[in-house]
Write a structure and sequence with these properties.
By secondary structure, the protein is α+β, with helices and mostly antiparallel strands. It has 8 helices and 15 strands. Strands 1-12-7-14-4-3-2 form a 7-stranded antiparallel sheet. The longest helix has 17 residues, at 27-43. The protein is globular and about 55 Å long. The mean pLDDT is 95. It binds 2-oxoglutaric acid (AKG).
């Protein structure tokens, strides 16, 4: 991408809180990434710590839902996270160097994939300043039926985070409590697209995805989290969050 295009991208990102490249990668590159992912699931996933691999149904391996930190466990995905155009896009969007944090796999298995609750990624990150982006790459066609991403355009501009609470969705423990205002509805934009569709969003943007109600199509994607080089973990906010969560779990008799 030329410097001019990167400048356009940064302007659109600042205005809307996200950018969409449809597609970022062509069919050959997507076939390569999908083949590498199949290899990863067969060979590497079984060696990962159990707390980094989620299933919709733990007794059924075909219901794989999420994996964390793929770039820590595999050279192909490390390269994609650290030395690809995706990192350049993250740096351009933030206006500062992007530091790789987490490469995640997000699936919604056919018929049983749960909704992604409306949330703001930065609520989970505990950064000061909260300078961070997430890239999202569709590995197959996505639409309303199998749970494409929706953004509330411009919602990053309000600053800070709206109240979140327990969502009961594995992998997305926190969801917005007050989602669905007139403003949320008026500014919601859906992102259906083919394999290779790439979205990148600011850590303040409100976003969500529906369940997968397709009887036979999965909804596979990769998520690329980068922090800006100026971002620091806010240890006090992180500790307060942990204490709050533990108190809730204790009150519910879960721990
Ligand atoms: O894939 C999804 O449904 C959600 C992804 C997401 O919320 C994110 O990458 O921040």
């Amino acid at each position: 991408m030329s410097e001019l295009d990167m400048n356009d991208l940064a302007a659109g990102f600042a205005r809307d809180g996200y950018v969409a490249l449809q597609p970022l990668f062509d069919a050959d590159k997507m076939a390569e990434i999908n083949a590498e992912l199949d290899r990863y699931i067969a060979d590497v996933m079984p060696t990962m710590p159990v707390e980094e691999v989620y299933f919709e149904n733990r007794d059924d391996r075909s219901t794989l839902k999420q994996m964390q930190k793929l770039s820590v466990y595999d050279a192909y995905f490390r390269e994609l996270m650290e030395n690809s155009v995706i990192r350049d896009l993250a740096s351009a969007a933030m206006g500062e160097a992007a530091v790789p944090q987490n490469l995640q796999y997000f699936n919604k298995p056919a018929g049983i994939g749960q909704p992604t609750p409306p949330h703001q990624d930065g609520y989970y990150f505990h950064l000061s300043p909260c300078k961070a982006v997430t890239g999202w790459l569709a590995l197959e066609p996505v639409d309303e039926e199998n749970g494409c991403i929706h953004y509330v355009r411009g919602s990053h501009k309000a600053g800070g985070f709206r109240p979140h609470g327990r969502s009961n969705v594995l992998g997305f423990s926190q969801g917005l409590m007050d989602f669905g205002t007139e403003d949320d509805k008026a500014n919601t934009v859906a992102f259906p697209g083919d394999a290779g569709t790439f979205l990148m969003h600011d850590a303040h943007i409100i976003h969500w995805a529906g369940p997968n109600v397709s009887p036979d199509r999965s909804r596979r994607a990769l998520g690329f989290v980068y922090f800006g080089e100026s971002a620091r973990i806010d240890e006090a906010s992180k500790a307060a969050y942990k204490a709050r969560l533990e108190a809730e779990l204790r009150a519910e008799g879960k721990i």
